[in-house]
């Protein structure tokens, strides 16, 4: 049983709304000046992270999940359940909605998509679309058909350090000038509602999915209430951002000195947003830096984190 943290090589995705913040802020070698997504911890076939250290070096996270399930606690579920991304919204994302598991498995053959966002940075006056003002499905259809977007879409201000929980069925969109860490179910199913009549590089309007979007949208909109709680654990301030027993728990760690943790989940996903430090297990010590992403596998029963760093940590 490995007691080695699994450091991962991210996969980058060009997007019509992407920019250069993944390079400018995190130093990644991005493929273009329209790089919108860093799939940092991913076993999804549309973007598989690769292990870059230890006995499983060179394997993708999906291969490791399929071939060495004991590394992740031997869970009896078909697919690696979570996906961590960093998103650079250089311009507005399309207005969209994701299905729940039942709808997605029936119509798309994969999991639905409940997600959450930690705002790494945001320009002054930044906002996001979160929810809608339709009171019934008929009103939702009419407002979409008539293009009454200003009346339909609910806009909320965002700033650095904010956190939003986005259950399936929530109409949403990140808007210009936000840099976000997203924790989500491992799914790539998105139904576009509105895309500002934009054209792609070939001059084509991007596909909308209005029938599916109406079918899966929660009407009327319901805010997902989360109440973050903070505790001090030795030298680390731990903020529990969301704890949903069905999908995931997400924490923010602010590390200031050596802290010992017991592993209380089958495995942990860790993304380093600021600073640097080290992690020690019975098998050795590994350094980490801003922009690193790693998985702590089942074999690690206890570990020590040391340094000055901000991390987002999640588990099922």
TrEMBL record:
What reaction does this catalyse?
A: D-mannose 6-phosphate = D-fructose 6-phosphate
Extract one GO BP annotation from the record: carbohydrate metabolic process
Cofactor(s) recorded in Swiss-Prot or TrEMBL: Zn(2+)
Q: Which UniProt keywords apply?
A: Isomerase, Metal-binding, Zinc
InterPro entries named among the record's database cross-references: Carb_Metab_Reg_Kinase/Isom, Man6P_Isoase-1, Man6P_isomerase_Firm_short, MPI_cupin_dom, PMI_typeI_cat, RmlC-like_jellyroll, RmlC_Cupin_sf
In Gene Ontology terms, what is one molecular function of this protein? mannose-6-phosphate isomerase activity
Q: Which residues form the active site?
A: 192
Q: How is the cofactor bound?
A: Binds 1 zinc ion per subunit.
Transmembrane ranges, per UniProt, are none
Q: Which residues form the Phosphomannose isomerase type I catalytic domain?
A: 7-118
EC numbers for this chain? 5.3.1.8
Q: Which residues bind Zn(2+)?
A: 98, 115, 172
Which positions fall inside the Mannose-6-phosphate isomerase cupin domain? 238-316
Keyword Magnesium included in the entry's annotation: no
Family of this protein: Belongs to the mannose-6-phosphate isomerase type 1 family.
Indicate what this protein is called per its UniProt record.
Answer: Mannose-6-phosphate isomerase
Task: Specify the species.
Answer: Aureibacillus halotolerans
Organism placement in taxonomy: Bacteria, Bacillati, Bacillota, Bacilli, Bacillales
């Amino acid at each position: 049983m490995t007691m080695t943290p699994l450091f991962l090589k991210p996969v980058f995705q060009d997007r019509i709304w992407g920019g250069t913040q993944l390079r400018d802020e995190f130093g990644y070698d991005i493929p273009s000046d329209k790089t919108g997504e860093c799939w940092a911890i991913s076993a999804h076939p549309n973007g598989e992270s690769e292990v870059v250290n230890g006995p499983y070096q060179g394997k993708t996270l999906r291969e490791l999940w399929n071939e060495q399930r004991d590394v992740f606690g031997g869970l009896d579920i078909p697919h690696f359940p979570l996906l961590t991304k960093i998103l650079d919204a250089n311009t507005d994302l399309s207005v969209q909605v994701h299905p729940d598991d039942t709808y997605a498995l029936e119509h798309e053959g994969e999991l639905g998509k409940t997600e959450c966002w930690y705002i790494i940075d945001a320009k002054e006056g930044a906002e996001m679309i979160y929810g809608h003002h339709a009171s019934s499905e008929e009103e939702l259809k009419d407002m979409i058909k008539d293009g009454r977007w200003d009346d339909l879409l609910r806009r909320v201000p965002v700033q650095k350090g904010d956190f939003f929980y986005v259950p399936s069925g929530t109409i949403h969109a990140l808007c210009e000038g936000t840099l976000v860490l997203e924790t989500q179910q491992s799914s790539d199913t998105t139904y576009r509602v509105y895309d500002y009549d934009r054209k792609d590089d070939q001059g084509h309007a991007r596909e909308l999915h209005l029938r599916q979007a109406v079918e899966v949208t929660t009407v009327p909109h319901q805010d997902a209430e989360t109440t973050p709680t903070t505790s001090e654990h030795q030298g680390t301030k731990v903020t529990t951002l969301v704890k949903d027993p069905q999908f995931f728990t997400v924490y923010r760690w602010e590390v200031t000195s050596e802290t010992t943790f017991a592993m209380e989940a089958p495995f942990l996903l860790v993304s380093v947003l600021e600073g640097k430090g080290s992690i020690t297990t019975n098998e050795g010590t590994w350094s980490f830096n801003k922009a690193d992403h790693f998985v702590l596998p089942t074999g690690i029963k206890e570990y020590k984190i040391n340094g000055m760093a901000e991390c987002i940590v999640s588990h099922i």
